Amino acid sequence: MLLDNDPLGIRSIDIKYEGSTKATQYCIDDFMKRLYGSRKITDMTILTCEKYHALMLCFENRDLVVFIKSGLTSGYSGEGPNGTSLIIRLAEEAGITIKELNAAPSLFKRINSSLATVKDVEFIKKNSKESLDYDRLCLKNVNKEYVQQAKDSFKKNKDIIFVRAEDEKTKDSVEIDRAKALKMLQEIHEAVVKSKKTSLLTKMMIGAKIISIIKELYDLTDFIQQ
Q1: Mind listing the pLDDT tens digit for each residue in 118-128?
Q2: Which of 16, 176, 95, 75 is nearest to 85 (CA)?
């Protein structure tokens, strides 16, 4: 029996899944959140299966890998190819190393099903190559102006909290105005301050109100994609 040098999995790679197989915009949104996030992307591998593309993002600290599911496409004009082209242009602009790998359907399915393994990550890293077919992957209409518009739109909407309820078959998105969330938090603060000046019974009533507000906020957000 081989000695297990990491019995608790402390040194394991954290594999996360974002984007959507159904909506290109989710793929763009999640890529841009990572691009402008606190962790620097160093490598991006475009995983190609027929006309569909997923992404594998690797980061500077090497303990995280993010897969963007295959809502990206190529080979024709439309939202999917525009999204693929846009992400490549953004990655180039950011100095990210871009690679490509023709992925087997079985690997593609594991990624889209959120079931990729560390062995899959190692295989992709070992076999991906820095060679892109620009005529296929980068549409000419996705130029500097197009890229700038996408960046401006992202920055304009960054104060919106995006919430996604997801199961194996669907991914729905709703938007919550940050002002509404902040107002609810302000109500909690005011209730806490007021409770310091009231009787025990009133404090109990205020406590119930705080719990109600927190529950409403939790139900409203479900979970927050930062």
Answers
A1: 999 999 999 99
A2: 75
